[in-house]
Fold this protein.
Amino acid sequence: MPFKDRDQRLAYNQKYNKEIHYPKNREKYLKKSKVSRDRLRRIIKELKEESPCTDCGKFFPYYIMDFDHVYGEKRTEISRLLSMGYAEVLASELAKSELACCLCHRIRTHQRMLAAKQQVAAGQHAPTRAQA
């Protein structure tokens, strides 16, 4: 049904999509979403397996490698972005990260925490992730 008023047309389209179109095509949308998430997971797995640890330079299986957010402000966890299938946001978060093995990542995190505690004890502000 055509509407001249933009707001009425948008309201009608939203109601139609929510109540009629999506329920009819639910399985198609779920399958498309799963394919997208699986593709992103495969890309991340390959990236982890083909890249060495930034700190020690060794190669490890994908499940040993972690992304360490070291640049800029962290929006959310990479694993959460993978499960939601947000490719563009995922790419921007990966650009702010370095790949490190789990041991080197734990060492880095511990050193950052110690440095932050020392700065707080000295009366300075704790560094942000970008400064650490």
Notes: The mean pLDDT is 87. Residues 83 and 117 are 34 Å apart (CA to CA).
